[in-house]
Amino acid sequence: MAASTSPNFTTSLHKNSHKTKFPSLPGKKTLHTKLSFSFSFPFNKSIRVKSIGTAKYDEVVVDEELDKIRRLQNGSDVRGVALEGEKGRTVDLTPPAVEAISESFGEWIIKGLKKEKGYPVENVRVSLGRDPRVTGSKLSVAVFAGLARAGCMVYDMGLATTPACFMSTLLPPFAYDASMMMTASHLPYTRNGLKFFTKRGGLTSTEVEEICEKAARKYANRMAKVSTLLNVLPTKVDFMSTYSMHLREIIKERINHPLHYDTPLQGFQIIVNAGNGSGGFFTWDVLDKLGADTFGSLHLNPDGMFPNHIPNPEDKTAMALTRAAVLQNSADLGIVFDTDVDRSGVVDSKGNPINGDKLIALMSAIVLREHPGSTIVTDARTSMALTRFITDRGGHHCLYRVGYRNVIDKGVHLNNDGIETHLMMETSGHGALKENHFLDDGAYMVVKIIIEMVRMKLAGSNEGIGSLIEDLEEPYESVELRINIISEPRLAKAKGIEAIEIFRNYIEEGRLKGWELDSCGDCWVSEGCLVDTNDTPAPIDAQMYRAKVSNDEHAQHGWVHMRQSIHNPNIAVNLQSSVRGGCLSMARAFRDEFLKASGVHTFLDITQVDKFAENGSKA
């Protein structure tokens, strides 16, 4: 969830010598609570180092402290465990860690603005929004403290969405220099995290890695305690009202209803399932004010424990409950948001869930009507049928790396190189449009669908938005398998890369008969939709390759995608086939002719692959 045109800030993160001195603001109270964060090293932890001196021992401990922050990076985000309750996981997203990361982000922004403008910038303003997680309040204080230490003026948006945080850097009268969102998206209530934005978009993985590296050194060097006194409370602002009005105006202007301009959704019933996340605003501040009937909507009140289901448009329970509500109320549309509303899914009037490839197809149909011949960028887990759907409508389909940031950034790069690309979308529901600042905004995606639904009705069609994807074929079989990496956490990434590179070599050497590294052919992406071969290749954040699979009987009938997880020490293997039994035969070849033949099974737990290869089931 995030805008993607990233700032070109490449300055190194040295301690910023310029600090803005904040005068006491009228009407602001001093926060008298002193926040004491312990940064003492856990010397009582069992770290066995034999036959080495004190200096070497200290080096081991410092490396461990540095890794605590480094491991929190999750691609272009920061994520971690913020609350006890997960079996086998300890709390690692602590207030001291959050403060160090926020301070480093603040310094990064200040130095980037200085480089951009050519002179020191004072009164740098940064906003913070958060989802309703129970750890949000405590960690927000750490963010405020870190930003203040960096010399930033801080603005508290309270409960917000990830797209709104980015828009707070653009929409007047706010137009902050940067913004942060505290969320862990659809992950359990015990998790939390941070997302980062400037006026140019969301930060890249490389930029977040740079910030986390600086934060790690801050964290490790604070040997005893850091006491932070907030001289003034952050300024509380209501940005969500402005953001909601922005969405309403887009709907009114583009529908341009001939009878009731200000209430163009009059006569439509639309059900929202916010999953107790941040998405309830879309019901009362957008749909209701435009005349829609939202009776039957679900889980609108924020609850950081997420008591009903995971707020996730990919979640089967979320989609099933929304489908039932649509059918029970004979509604025109159902909407499912994830926690921070950077993703969405819908249910049509007939109760058909539209997410994954179906949602990409729906958005492609809408976009290609408006922009004939546009390129559509997706991740490489989409079906061969989706490619046909897009090309049949005159579009071009670019398959690219898994990861919403990768997909969106690819669209930005294509546009910069003169290839018109209006939609970038991942199967998870992250979707961005060129017309909306390349921002993956679940609410804006739904706005586009609603506008098309009303236009179809005004044109005399009663078919509903589901009719736009009636000819989309579904793959006959599709499965995802997980392979755990048997390694110390700090070595897991390297082991994952090793296994995936061996997979590539096996295919290139022809050891897997009928398997070939895939490429869409519509742009300069090669080697299994991973590598850019143009003059400015994007850095690779996680290894992955897609192989298309053919045989004498069915020709090309499927693909296998092997990728390193950014989130966890495991490898995901996706298989998709257009013929019966295709996934089973590919899984067996993958296990016998690659995993075992290459020896990588010695450091991988292939239990799930074994089970599926034996009986066609993961259970």
Automatic annotation (TrEMBL):
CC annotations in GO = chloroplast stroma
As one GO molecular function, the record gives: phosphoglucomutase activity
Q: Record's InterPro entries?
A: A-D-PHexomutase_a/b/a-I, A-D-PHexomutase_a/b/a-I/II/III, A-D-PHexomutase_a/b/a-II, A-D-PHexomutase_a/b/a-III, Alpha-D-phosphohexomutase_SF, Phosphoglucosamine_mutase
- Stated EC number for the protein is 5.4.2.2
Q: Does the keyword Phosphoprotein apply?
A: yes
Query: What is stated as this protein's family in its record?
Result: Belongs to the phosphohexose mutase family.
Question: How is this protein named in the record?
Answer: phosphoglucomutase (alpha-D-glucose-1,6-bisphosphate-dependent)
Show the taxonomic lineage. Eukaryota, Viridiplantae, Streptophyta, Embryophyta, Tracheophyta
